[in-house]
Amino acid sequence: MKQSVKIIPFFLCFSALTGLMACERETAESLVQPEAEQQTVSLAGGIVVNTTKYLLTKHGTTVLSYDTDGRLKKVTLSPTHYIDYTYQDGEYKRVFTKEYNDNKLDVATTYYIHRAQAANSSGYIPVPPKGSYYENYPDQCYYVETERYMHYPLGDKTIKTNCLYTYNDKGQIAKVYLGNWPEPDNFIDFAYNTNGDLLKATEYTPQKVKIRESTFEYTAFGDPIRNDRTVFNPEELQVDPYATVFGKYSNHLARAKKIEAFAPYSLESNYYYQYLINSDGYVTKRDTYTISNAQLIQSTPYEYLVTSPRNTQ
Which domain of life is it from (predicted)? Predict the structure, then answer.
């Protein structure tokens, strides 16, 4: 049986959302801006630079905490469900996460960080060659190894997966091989627009049959484009959304998303995102609506640890 939900053109829903958008303060921005700096002259004659820095501490009901170096240390989804993060530095960089639920280890994940490929592609060298992709983006993940522990009364079962991640020359995800590299179950292709924003993520079977596609819109309902200052991994990466080892997949905030499934059934869903933005350009809340009837289906607040270090130059 073939099911489908048709897209209702954006302008048909515009009037339904006009009142909701009235409270949103926005100005058009076409390029990603650095964190705002204010300069004053100190009594010693130097220039004092005030840079406001934001660390996300709460995303919906999820709480994030950090170590003294500002690296993510723990993500708490509930009092009994949390993820711990540890780091291995040096020549062989790694990020390790362990997800616990009801005091049981559910998932252990290792993120392998880039080293430069050797000239003959038979191995890796610790120092990226000058001018190479790896020199420009040395701290991104190319391989993810996951162990999932299924807890049964008669004993635990472990399911292992190995996924490979490749990038384009701008350091953005180009392709993900899912499942069991080097014989992947499926793969996902990522396409970007001229602004460097993720446009499509299309999943295929190993036989190149399209089974799912996500399409993103950044100027829906005529809203001005907004910089995305908080990095999350999109759902299409199929990894922890808070593991910042995959680069930045988009420079701007997505305003709408269409999800299509092609096999075994044809299904389609469409969403519109409404944001509240603070004076520094950071999201403080995101509301998710259905396109078909402008129904609010999720409201996600954001909270930050905000610091304003003072540096004299």
Answer: Bacteria
